[in-house]
Amino acid sequence: MDNVTMDFIIGLPKSEDSDSIIVVVDRFSKYATFITASTDCTAEETARLFLKHIVKYWGLPKFIISDRDLRFTGKFWTELFKLMGSELHFSTSFHPQTNGQTERVNALLELYLRHFVSANQKDWAKLLDIAQFSYNLQMSKATNPFELATRQQPLTPHTLTIGYTGRSPAAFKFAKRCTSKLT
Predict the structure, then answer these.
(1) pTM, whole model, 2 decimals?
(2) Residue 36 in 3-state DSSP?
(3) Contact 135, 26 (CB under 8 A)
(4) Spatial separation of the C-alpha atoms in residues 10 and 23, rounded to whole Å
(5) What are 67-92's pLDDT values in tens digits?
(6) Are 7 and 66 in contact (CB under 8 A)?
(7) Sign of CA dihedral 69, 81, 20, 156
């Protein structure tokens, strides 16, 4: 992930102490990472989440493109990534298409959550891992973001053709729910 875009989805109902999502997309592979956050998290908290969910797995990106959110334009964020060797670039309000890739992912994620979230809309945070996995498996011509980023196809419930229902009805129901949310 040499070149990533970042954005926040805000205004969500509270779910597991979070009310927003940080969306990070690799510009080459289109691999997306969805991170639960609080709307009022500071630049330092956002940086910790970025290190925990992006840098830990992929290393530091060379370029980070984001909107002009105060967390991204403030002294802490800009100095931190300058010290770490990443270049920060910002989209402008007159050219939001600079960050259009992330905006498209945001729209797809919001659609996914609307489709699967419960009536009270309080469980969206529990769905993010499956939403991320599902998004990254979406085929585009000959490959998908997961395969481009990891150079492998993951084993999924759809790739298993075993008719085994298991000894635990609860585990079988859980696996069935996960499978239905992946399609």
Answers:
(1) 0.80
(2) strand
(3) no
(4) 11
(5) 888 888 888 888 888 899 999 888 87
(6) yes
(7) positive
- 37 vs 1: CA distance, rounded Å: 21
The amino acid sitting at 156 is: T
* pLDDT higher than 60, residue 161: no
| Total number of residues shown for the chain | 183
Both ends of the chain: CA-CA distance in Å? 27
Distance CA 65, CA 46 (A): 15
* Angle subtended by helix axes 100-116 and 124-136, to nearest 10: 120
Paired sense of beta strands 3-9 and 63-66, if any: parallel
Pairing type for strands 20-26 and 87-90 reads: unpaired
Q: Which two tokens stand for residue 85?
A: 């060797």
| Residue 102 banded pLDDT, cuts 50, 70, 90 | confident
Neighbours of 165 (CB within 10 A): 12
